[in-house]
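Sequence and fold
=================
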Amino acid sequence: MSKQRHAPSLVLERLARSRSEEPICVLGIDEVGTGALAGPIITGAVGFEDDENKLPIAVRDSKLLTHARRKELFKPIMDAALVTGIGAVTPEEIDKWG
């Protein structure tokens, strides 16, 4: 049986917004790497304003995009971002902390 992928929705974000007096930040997170098997895992995160009209095109998984499409989306995503972050974990750190 194949793993079914679902398009991202903002159902939980809408619920959080309806219960908050403060603005919320919608985060997109993705990782690359094989970790303990062959090197570090690198993770990137991007935070957006919770206004759906300001969110860039929906991206489910960057690995499903061509290299050219990822490059094309970089500027619109960075222009819309409120905050960004990058992290790296070595195989030794994965072994130590799980």
